[in-house]
What does this fold into?
Amino acid sequence: MAWKKSPPELIAAFAKAKPADPSVTSRPMFGYPALFLKGNMFAGTYQDKIVVRFGDDRTIAGSKSAKLFEPMPGRAMKEYVVVPDAVVKSPAKLRAWIDHAHGYAKKLPAKKAR
It folds into this structure.
């Protein structure tokens, strides 16, 4: 299965929602834009979707109904959810979801450099 590039408008919306925290870094993950804190990815694009890392804390409005992220069928990334299209279309809502994921990433231990 060939992966599709993320549309430019999705990448632009994702970039605008990046937290102002100077500790947050942007770099590609599997060729898609992603956000990292202390070496831990907490948000990114994947094809025509945005995914965020919430862990088990899904208290943000509407996130309980959000689907788990499956980059390959049957291979769910349990801490990640796909941001619904209605949220992606609202800059304020998208920023809230990414900020929630950023808050979760702050609680994670730093990844050791390889």
Q: What stands out?
A: The chain has one domain: 8-107. Residues 28 and 64 are 27 Å apart (CA to CA).
